[in-house]
Amino acid sequence: MKKMIKMAAAVFTFVGAFSGMAFATPSTQIWIPSTDIQAYKTLHLNLDSYIRTTGTGSFGNPTQRDPNIIMMGPTVGVLPFEKVQAEVGFDFLVNGTDTYDNYPFMGHFKVGTPEDSLFAFSPALAVGMYNIGTTHIATMTSGSNIVYGLAARTLPVVGRISAGGYTGSKIALISQNNGSAQEAGVMLSWDRTMTEISDKLWLAVDYMGGNNAMGAVNFGAAWSFSKNVSVILGYDIYNQRSLAGSNSLTFQVDINWPQ
User: Fold this and answer.
1) Which long-range CB contacts under 8 A does 155-159 form with residues at least 24 apart?
2) In tens digits, what is the pLDDT along the chain, a chain of 259 residues?
3) Quick count: other Cβ atoms within 10 Å of Cβ 10?
4) CA distance linking residue 61 with residue 206, whole number of Å
5) Which CATH architecture has domain 2-257?
């Protein structure tokens, strides 16, 4: 029991160290979090890029191109238990503008249980938070303080279906129409390893609701080059491009170092 208490304290201490930061990615599908959690002592490094697919901007200035985004950071599994798992991490984000680059560091955490861990056929469950930090300005990378919950179940032939919801900062998550708070929405996804083609090929579609800068529908494919290295190629269609910017092509590299 003492070891469990010390470990829990360590988790929350690590999370608290990043409470002044802004945006980060937990283990995800294409855009939204997944119920997946990094295994204990596994260090995960993500290298993500979001390349705009149109030549002119959407942030109220049709003559200026929206900036591309480069993001990288580690995530590590911190609990040694089979039925209760947790991860924490942070990211560094840049896009060449003061709006983002003045606050480049960001953190996140997630706690959950895998499928079948609670009872036979029980879904995977996960709760967590990302975009943790002080809201400096109303942008999608600045203190959105998103709290989310998800449930997921893998079905024969169909693949894994995930559903849940989120809520966040009323200051950062606003509508383009009148500036009113649009801080909540649904999270949905489907993903599947395409074993009929190759065990290395994975497809996914996910959706984050809300008339705010975070709302989007996203789809993509991943290829595992080895047990510990995979890449994702996807496309992001934002609900409110006047807030999030023009749609983007995303290229994500994921590397794991198991202990």
Assistant:
1) 158/190, 158/192, 159/190, 159/191, 159/192, 159/193
2) 344 333 333 333 333 333 222 334 578 999 999 999 999 999 999 999 999 987 665 555 666 778 888 989 999 999 999 999 999 998 887 877 766 677 777 789 999 999 999 999 999 999 999 978 655 544 444 568 899 999 999 999 999 999 999 998 887 788 876 677 888 999 999 999 999 999 999 999 999 999 888 899 999 999 999 989 999 999 999 998 888 888 999 999 999 998 6
3) 13
4) 29
5) Beta Barrel (2.40)
Amino acid type, 104: P
Cα–Cα distance for residue pair 236/215, rounded to 1 Å:
10
Amino acid at 43: L
**pTM attached to this predicted model:** 0.83
E-assigned strands of 68-145? 69-77, 85-94, 105-113, 124-132
What are the DSSP calls for 54-73, one per residue? SSS--SS-TTSPPPPEEEEE
Tokens of 166: 């989120």
Per 3-state DSSP, the chain is made up of helix, strand and coil in percentages (nearest 5) of 10, 45, 45
Residue 22 identity: A
Residues 6+ apart with CB under 8 A from 229: 253, 254, 255, 256
Paired residues of 221 in beta bridges: 203, 233
Stated length of the chain: 259
Report which secondary-structure segment, H or E, holds 242.
helix 241-244
Please give the backbone phi and psi of residue 93, each rounded to the nearest 5 degrees, phi first.
-120, 135
The pLDDT assigned to 259 comes to 62
User: Please, which residues bridge with residue 237 across strands?
Assistant: 217
Strand partners, 218: 206, 236
